[in-house]
User: What shape does this take?
Amino acid sequence: MRPGAIVWRRFRQAGLPVVGLLVILLLAVLAVLAPWVAPYEPTEIDIDNVLSPPSLAHPFGTDELGRDVLSRMLWGARVSMSVGFVAMGIAVAVGLLVGSVAGYFGGWVDALLMRLVDVMLAFPTFVLILAVIAIVEPSIFTIMVVVGLTGWMDVARLVRAEFLSLKEREFVLAARALGAGHARIIFREILPNALSPVFVAATFGVAGAILVESALSFLGIGVQPPTPSWGNILTSGKDYIEVAWWLSLFPGLAILITVLSYNLVGEGLRDALDPRLWQTEEGLLYEQAQGGAG
Assistant: This one.
C-alpha cells in the first residue's frame, strides 16, 4: 500500500479529525463564495432594523447599525482564513529556512540561529505583536506579516531536529559523494523528508493565527471597521451584550468551531504521520499478507 493511502486511512479511522477537515472545507468554501452567498452587503446599513434579533430576514440578527450579522460573518471568514493561511505561510517559510540552515551546518551557525530563536521565544508573543502593531498602522496586511514573523520559532526547532537526524543518513552521504552542493542536499534531499512535523505544526499554527487576529480585532488594533472580521463583530457584542446576545454568540461560536476543527485536524495528522505507528502498520500489513498466503 502506498504511503499516502496509509496516511489517509489512518487519518480517516480517527473519526473526529475527518469532521474537523469537513468543517474547515465548508468554511473555506463559504469564505470564497461570500460575495454570492451572503444575503446582504457587509456594510449595508438599515436604520429600521437596528439590533434586530435573529429572524427569517436576518438569521443571525443585525448589529447596532442595522448591518446583517450573517453577511458580516461570511465576509469575516475571508479575513480570518486569509490571515491564518498567509501568516502561517510566512512563519513556515522563515522557520524552514532557519531550521534547515541551523540543522545542516551545525557548529557556530547552529548556535547563533538557535540563540536568535531563544531570544524570540523569551518575549511573550502576543505582547510583541501588540508592540509592533502599536508602531505601524493596523491593517490586514500588517497583521499577516507581524503574526507570521512572530510565529516561526517552533517550526524552526522542529526542522532543525529533523535535519540533525537526517543529515548523516546514507542517502545524504551518497549525495555528498556524488558532488551535490549544499543547496541541493538541503532542499532536494533532506527537506522533503523533514516536512511531516511541519505539516502538523502549520495546522496548529493556522488556528493560533486566527485566534490572534480575532483578539487583535476585538481590542480594536486589528482589522479596522468597516471591514468585517469575527473579532470586531465581537467588539460590538461586548457593548450590547445585555440587549443583543447574538452579536457575541455567533462570532464566538465561529471562532470556537474553527479553532477546534484545526486542532482536531492537527491531532489527526500527528497520529497519521507518526513513524512509530507507521512501523506498527507495516508490520500488521505484512502479517496479514503472510497469513493470507498461508
